[in-house]
Design brief:
The complex is a heterodimer. Chain A is mainly alpha-helical. Helices cover 58% and strands 11% of the residues of chain A. Chain A has helices at 3-7, 9-17, 21-30, 36-45, 55-64, 88-115, and strands at residues 34-35, 68-73, 81-86. By secondary structure, chain B is mostly helical. Chain B contains eight helices and no strands. Classes of the chains: A mainly alpha, B mainly alpha. Chain A binds chain B through residues 14, 18, 35-37, 40, 44, 50-54, 56-61, 63-64, 77-79, 81-82, and chain B through 14, 21, 24-25, 28-29, 31-33, 35-36, 38-40, 42, 58-62, 64-66, 68-70, 75-76, 79.
Chain lengths: 124, 172
């Protein structure tokens, strides 16, 4: 892996998405019962996923781990659709992530501001 | 290849690739992607080759989908290994190396006087499981145990000196 590859924008985005996307999926499902296709569309619109299909193994894993549950619903346009909803465990996992993410984001923002000279490193 | 065959071929490849997972997981992945293709084409309102190719292209290759989130996924690759390695050393404070270090510090003198406990100290400080305070504690214990025979030697040696001198002194 070359030096420039490590610094490239796609590479950085791949690194950043890792570990975050599954919680974005939990957050989307947390808003109400969701159709997988709609989840993927929102993530793609916000550039949180590049290969859209990779969300399906992620959903399967979240279900296996008991964070989401599914139910089938009739569709007016074709075969029944699988809908996802959060389990209690999934909601707890999301709440934990939100708390961690908030302090993580604050810390990174503070360091980046310090790095650009508008704030000193010790936060004063 | 006609347009619909593109979809069939894509799903066949995905099905083959997903076989490495449990049947339930494979069904959910393939079923989800199949629904996705149908929904995307319904939304586009067209099923021509260009539209189908665009939908499949955005999904990514069947290989990439099947490997996503597994050890074979190059994007994740080494990460889980690092995590488990850390957890393994963090979970238990006594590994083989630490047990040997403790034995050398406490009983090392019996086998190799002085050298044994010193080897124990080297192992102690090389340990990745023990924290610095633990290592300092182990060092103190080792030094005390090393000093003890020295002290005893000094006491007994001092007392033994006159009697030891006797046999040499007596012939003269």
């Amino acid at each position: 892996m070359g030096f420039h590859d490590r610094l490239s924008s796609p590479r950085i985005m791949t690194e950043l998405r890792r570990g975050v996307v599954e919680h974005c999926v939990l957050a989307l499902i947390g808003e109400g019962e969701s159709y997988a296709f709609d989840i993927v569309k929102v993530l793609a619109t916000r550039h949180l996923v590049t290969s859209e299909g990779t969300i399906y193994p992620l959903l399967a894993r979240l279900r296996r781990d008991g964070l989401v549950a599914t139910s089938w619903r009739e569709s007016t346009a074709g075969p029944p659709r699988r809908y996802y909803r959060l389990t209690d465990e999934g909601r707890r996992a999301l709440e934990t992530f939100v708390a961690e993410w908030t302090s993580f984001r604050t810390a990174v923002d503070a360091l980046l501001r310090a790095g650009t000279g508008s704030e000193s490193l010790d936060g004063r | 290849m006609d347009a619909e065959a593109l979809v069939r071929d894509y799903l066949d490849r995905l099905e083959t690739e997903a076989r490495r997972r449990t049947p339930e997981q494979a069904d959910e992945i393939v079923g989800g992607v199949r629904e996705h293709i149908e929904a995307a084409l319904a939304e586009a309102g067209r099923r021509d080759e260009a539209t189908i190719r665009m939908v499949l292209d955005k999904l990514g290759s069947p290989e990439a989908i099947a490997a996503a989130g597994t050890a074979e996924d190059g994007q994740r690759g080494a990460e889980p290994d690092v995590m488990t390695a850390r957890r393994d050393t963090g979970g238990r404070s006594l590994g083989p190396m630490e047990i040997i270090a403790l034995l050398l510090i406490t009983f090392g003198s019996v086998v190799l006087p002085f050298v044994g406990p010193l080897l124990g100290l080297v192992l102690t400080w090389a340990s990745q499981r023990w924290t610095v305070p633990v290592k300092i504690g182990a060092t103190v214990v080792a030094l005390v145990l090393l000093a003890l025979p020295l002290g005893l030697f000094a006491v007994s040696g001092g007392a033994a000196a006159p009697s030891a001198a006797l046999p040499i002194a007596s012939p003269h």
